[in-house]
């Protein structure tokens, strides 16, 4: 053992434990060596002559840690033995007489990170509050704000736990956030699901427009329980709960190390963050052990609830069992690892993420009930309300021609609705039926058959939605209270989808659904830190943390290579048929002087230019008629901008995808868009997809790529297959038929002439 290694251990242990170990009284008695001015503990006087001295390493300045002020009385170092779990817990024991600081364990929301908005006259949401073992919360806080348009006298927010009322209060926070404190005696150890129900009324108007103007925002990161920092036990369960609470607050989980963390270990930890129950946008924040602690953002809770410290394997003390759990002086539970920790050693603290449940799979042919696709009847209670059911079709289902799907709709609506009240029935956001909601209220209506083109459906994810639009009567007064639903969609509603031959286009959705954290990688060949593609690395870590396995039958492993737009290999651009200028214009648009000064009238076109433009438009019209798909990728991107482009470079290998990120690509936005797109009909599909800064996908399907057969052609499927190819390219299909017809006519004429000549002879 050398002095250099001992000094490094002193830095790490001193950073974690110095305030708890080195009390002011102990320093005064001389029982431990005082820290140097630069914060490094000099252990040379304690080593004696039994160790060989080595040249001292350059000292790294660490901010000094102030010793806590203790009350009068004797103080002593806590008993501690290396490798003893009880001793590890004793490291952070708070001296007698000093109350441990309170830390906020924030709530989590099913809606994801950020604010949870409850809009409309009636809305419901939920918060999950997890109580660590050993903690006894006295209060539960809920922080909210509401629209200034809300009428407080007729607007209330109710919180319940397992049917037990926790609180009910009027909405009186039209400006800044307000915090309501509720009793926490009903909370149990472990997760507690708090149901929130809001009833809101516009102070002036009534109708769909007024429904959009009334809302209540719940701030999960500022809601939750405040417990003593030393209440949760420093063990695997306590660390997991603390990490989940910190990630839910959007603060990220720090990964602290004195040297570079192996990329494999960092990727493994990042991929396990969602296993703590945290949201898919959870982030792993790497920082140096020598860097000062970051300053909390305004309004954020100070300090960490949990963090991870990685030690070099050569610096781990002999006999110290790792992983280990210690409590830092700020109350955070620290998971201590070595840089050679195997993945299975993380299972207790960071369990692997469980597969995400996919929407139910519908088998084409037989009718399926709506109750088989959703938990209960669908209810619409607001002046503008929407309810949707998402389901899956097989990946090799494809109908492009005139086949019809059918919905047998069972519904009812309230009595006394205005004559202009309507309900829209939509399939993948396309309206297929508009129904009046007047004249037969509060009665069981007969089944209504709603047929629609089956081509509105697509392989993979689909949705059927219902939207109610209830005008105010009158519209310039607050809405009267209606206890009950405006519209109910019965679970006996059925959906019948015709079968199809096994055909498919190259689709991004198949690869995105099969993608796992292990399949996300960067295409950065640079080994040194100075030249690494930092944007791609940040995106790769966010995607790995936000992509738990999806519970679908994958056709094979999928890979996603992440690279920045300015690092993309020119050979890949050539393969995609894309030029650098078009890519930069789409992902990194630059402002020009014309953008700042306004539009400038273009010069008058010459006769030759007008003729050329007319010919180009005519050719585009003919091409669109022959191939109804999208134009070349360069032309398709010409009038679009986004933050990232997802493509399949080789259509023969649709499982291998490439993500090109622009300078404005936010890693959290990428992770959320990928996670949502896997289970949404609006997710990435086709052969390329452009992600906008709002998190929506625009899909590109090349017109020149025909559908591929996945089964033999025979008499049973020939008609449907011909219809699919005819719909894919009507002019091309018609040309083929015309050619066959002409060949048949010529052959018939030849046979007629040949046989007539033989008879004449």
From TrEMBL:
GO terms for cellular component: plasma membrane. Gene3D superfamilies: 1.20.5.4520, 3.30.379.20, 3.30.379.30, Galactose-binding domain-like. This is Cyclic di-GMP-binding protein. PANTHER family: CYCLIC DI-GMP-BINDING PROTEIN (PTHR39083). Pathway: Glycan metabolism; bacterial cellulose biosynthesis. InterPro entries: BscB-like_C, Cell_synthase_bac. It comes from Loktanella fryxellensis. Residues 624-756 form the Cellulose synthase subunit B-like C-terminal domain. It is a single-pass membrane protein. One of its GO terms (biological process) is cellulose biosynthetic process. Its main location: membrane. Binds the cellulose synthase activator, bis-(3'-5') cyclic diguanylic acid (c-di-GMP). Keywords: c-di-GMP, Cell inner membrane, Cell membrane, Cellulose biosynthesis, Membrane, Signal, Transmembrane, Transmembrane helix. Residues 1-28 form the signal peptide. It is found in: Cell inner membrane; Cell membrane. Belongs to the AcsB/BcsB family. The chain crosses the membrane at residues 731-753. Tightly associated with the cellulose synthase catalytic subunit.
